[in-house]
Design a protein that fits this description.
53 residues, mainly alpha, rod-shaped
Length: 53
């Protein structure tokens, strides 16, 4: 019948890939949060500046 030529990944290899993915996701979330915060702060500054001028 049909056989796959590649060997299945070991459990630890799979876990390390998953852990890496989770870490990447956490970094992306933090970066997104920082971008949103900076964007909102910028909006706030624009609002304050327009009131002052």
């Amino acid at each position: 019948m049909f056989k796959t030529s590649h060997l299945p990944m070991s459990r630890s290899a799979i876990e390390s890939v998953i852990a890496h993915g989770k870490r990447e996701h956490a970094l992306n979330v933090k970066r997104d949060h920082a971008l949103k915060r900076n964007y909102l702060l910028g909006k706030q500054d624009d609002c304050i500046n327009s009131r002052l001028s």
